[in-house]
């Protein structure tokens, strides 16, 4: 079924967001802070900065899976300990202006937090979230969404999608949740024509053609899984410095650690982001570390994204191809390059 | 945490300053006891924490007290010369004065942090100091904004003064090419002669224009090496580990003059020995990012590191340090202006600026990972018993981490700016480091990048060090 679409002026969608904010929804959109673009809750649609916005410095995942969130609080009273569960705030939110790769990242988080066991805090937040993605009208040097099954105008994970067509904008409703968000406002908008849709499609093809990286082989996941003991991992991972940039800017990384903030009388148990590249991530209390070297930790990162997850989730790549980790890595580690290198070696050996 | 803050709110109505005193066992604790036994009446706002010596006071203790709700802190110990452990208080004087300068730069109200000398017999002095500190903290008001901006209108950006133009042009591609060609040749011959077992240099990364570290272990791979004005990484970060891992020969490292300064620190702190590595110095005209000269290069006078074992010049590789002799135009480091600008703002504005910066911190610890001088096997953030740096990625945890990182490098940082370059949140760590370096130069006349024999300033003292103690 072809969903509804409208042709809007920039003023119209800004007014629509303004109205949503007035209705009590939290609008989370790209804003510029000290020179970098980040997702932040905005008080007014005027703060939203889409001028030369390639992609945000890091993804908007923190609004579904916060950097740190309380799970429960504890308080000792005499011999008793009182526990109080945390509940996530019940505010409806709109994630506005995510690139399609980041919208796919939301679906990957869903796979993890709403899979076999539902995480109640995540689930609550997710139910109250509507995703309005923004199709890419150009690609960045680091982008490789098309290599991992995505597209610069992909709709996976989006409830609505905005496409820039020169001065005008095409807004498409993709889900019922999306339609609900434009209800009321859409009455005043002019419907999109076939010409607009064709223009959007031509734009998507043009952006796709500009992407440098080829789709991965279908059998990559199997080949990678069998490459665990390949000697090349040592040289692939040797310059990794074991920081956590890649995991923290990633739209689909979901590992966390739990810690107590407080004292012997009262406090809060929190979960906070963690990264598999840290030596501490797998260090046992005994001191033994099953992933003792940077290379073994980097291998874990690559295999989780490109082998273990796809093998468990119908061949879907956990990596969404936003390229942030490639661009921001202090030593230029390239996750796609690592996969390509190992896979090609396996192909030659088989 | 919510419950705690509710308690806080209730207390705010009849707010009384909560002050923590970190005092030494031998002098001030006894002095405070004296104040009690002589029935002195003074402000009841101070809670004492007894330590063996003020030399034990880590800035983290002070951060922790603020984190847990103190409105002010006073550290007090024996008078200079009276320390039970001879020099603990003199080391502490340097460390704490520097810490206060840093906190002032970060916008913490100076009225909240005090140091004093109070001997065992000075009960009267102790009571006066407590009154004085309590009055100062009362004036400053409750500290409700530790780990968050003081005002609500802190979003947006701060506009720094426009930097001056680049003092010199980017090097020509031909010059880079000829340096790269000689580098490949020298590395291949050093490897085949067995003088080095590995060379850490630069090669092209996978993104256009990106340069990344490369480990070369056999002569054929030397052709991968490259050199240009985008070779940003300080490769000496790999040196301590590489030296340990090699079985024969030395470790070769391609260095710019700024990178090699970190080697001075490694030698000074006995992390590596001079005969374990070989520095291949490249004549560097400066690092260029997005068409602009990197700030650290503005005032740089060193074309080749004075530590270089080889100079890979455009006209060939030469043993020792060889410079072109050409005049090198320099200009004032633009950070001088930026720091002066920040200092011209009110403490509150500075606090908001830095809290906004710290609020972005993701705690990826890339700043620590890229730092040559952060070589500890286990960093303070990895220690959980006790947990000095909260793992929660919030304002308090981020403030504790960023302040502690800066303090641990005070007097050791050589200003290679790698931490600031790699920070995904663009936190101006370079300004923190540089502000501390300025202060160390001013107070202790010390520069960390010069003499491998000179003791780091926070491990030593002079009897006549500047003294701001009450």
Question: Short description, anyone?
Answer:
Chain A is α+β, with helices and mostly antiparallel strands. Chain A has helices at residues 10-22, 100-113, 120-127, 176-182, 194-209, 220-225, 232-237, 245-249, 294-312, 324-328, 335-349; strands spanning 5-9, 26-33, 36-42, 68-77, 80-85, 93-98, 129-134, 160-165, 168-173, 190-191, 256-262, 266-273.
Number of strands of chain A: 12
Measured by DSSP, the beta-strand proportion of chain B falls in 5-15%
* Total of helices of chain A: 11
Shape of chain B: elongated
The ordered string of helix (H) and strand (E) elements of chain B is HEHEHEHEHHEEHEHEEEEEHHHHHH
Report the structural category of chain B.
alpha/beta
Give the biggest beta sheet of chain B: 6 strands, mixed
Tell how many strands the DSSP assignment of chain B holds: 12
Distance between the termini of chain A: 44 Å
Question: Largest interface, and how many residues on either side?
Answer: A-B, 51 and 47 residues
Distance between the termini of chain B: 35 Å
Q: How much beta of chain A, percentage-wise? A: 15-25%
Low-confidence stretches of chain A: none
What topology, given as strand order, has the largest sheet of chain B? Answer: 6-5-7-8-11-12
